[in-house]
Amino acid sequence: YSEEELYRPNFHFTPKKAWMNDPNGMFFYNGYYHLYFQYHPESNVWGPMHWGHAISTDMITWTELPIAIYPDELGTIFSGSAVVDISNSSGFGEVSNAIPIVAMYTSSKQLEGTDNWKQTQSIAYSNDEGRTFTKYENNPAIDNNEIKDFRDPKVTWDEEREKWVMVLAAGDRIMFYDSKDLKKWNLLSDFGQGIGGHGGVWECPDLFKLPVLGTEESKWVLFVSINPGGPNGGSATQYFIGDFDGTTFTMDKDFETALNKEHNYWIDFGRDNYAGVSWSNATRRDGSKLMLGWMSNWDYAQVVPTETWRSAMTIARKVQLQKNNNGYRLLINPVEELTNYRSTKYKKENIVIKEDTKIIDSGAIDLASAEIQFNIPNLKETIYTFKLSNKLGDELLFGYDNIKKKFFINRKNSGKTSFSEKFANKISTASRTSTNKNLSGTIILDKTSIELFFDNGETVMTEIFFPNSPLDKLSIEPKDQEFILGKIEINKLNFN
Ligand code: FRU
User: Fold this and answer.
1) What ipTM describes this predicted complex?
2) For residue 9, which phi and psi values (nearest 5 degrees)?
3) 22 lines ligand 1 (CB under 6 A)
4) Same domain as 476, residue 356
């Protein structure tokens, strides 16, 4: 492996070259999932933003296409969204029967001689299914001279009210707008001052409705990314559950009480999932939503040890809502499409873990491209540690501490870490919310990332790492007492 290839993921999306951050403008149309992204084609650090573009038929393997939106006199192209304007409500559809794709993004322009930006909201539309875009002649659609941080419009179709609704981040709150034609926007309300996490600026919101599993009820979900102020430092995405009446978002009362007691409503507790939002026009038949996030963290994203390209996206995920004794909680899991890539399988049941137990030795199954399902029945008061390692002594530790009731990822000795003192300064943890006496989980492994989905997606942790050679061994370690690993199933994922 050259250093570059050692670190380029096997199956998570990365741009061929240069800097990438947030996913943008995701929509599904005519067989393709589109993914645009914050892109600085000239360098491997953040700079004047464009919208890069990639497409996929299954959200797993991606084809990168030419840059879709370039900076203009209103500024560079910050994050935003895109919708499929099926009824041509915007009038942007040029050809008869053509369905325009309408993108809304933040134009961000640095004010001369200052560190401040003028951030306004602009529109661009496409009549070729998202390949190329034309800027709307009356941009900016929403002007702004007062608010410093005013960005990341996410547009959604409100079926009940038959109108477009847009959420926008404004520093310490989310502003709600509506529109009939995607061009003229009315401010409705705002939400968030003093509510939830405020350790940093609010960014990249999303608003959508989800059915509550097993009921006739639906609730509205509001995503709010925040940087810094994440549960384990730096950037992360929190969520709120409530109702939206067409004007105002109101948190569910019980959710509010629970949130005020302990804020553990984050779509991911790992350090590397940021700015994630849902795909437009891609609601699954069961009402679930699809999303992915940027698999990095502003704390160190610009200095990770890759040169020609920087940053990957997380695996695409399905978002559902459950309600149990603990109230509402999102369930987030990898999309089922990933299972189409399963090849060689290793499966074992009822393994007694008395001492450090090797599950996969180097070479047996490629752990740089794998999906693992496991189950531990009858949890004891002990610590369950999984260890990924290589012959150079790099190791990534993760698992569940049932004394503290916390999941953890420890990347302190996972390889290269010194590029940023914030990268491996502490062990990331997440409180377990489930009270199930059995623990089950899904683990997605790529060369430089781990994604953990515990308790059917109640708690998710995503982190990146940079080992000096691939982590090719997996072992499980007990602490003080033996336990039984009920099941472990490792599927090699094959993308050729
Ligand atoms: C989030 C963010 C957005 C902004 C974009 C700029 O990571 O800061 O708020 O639109 O990145 O690249």
Assistant:
1) 0.99
2) -60, 155
3) yes
4) yes
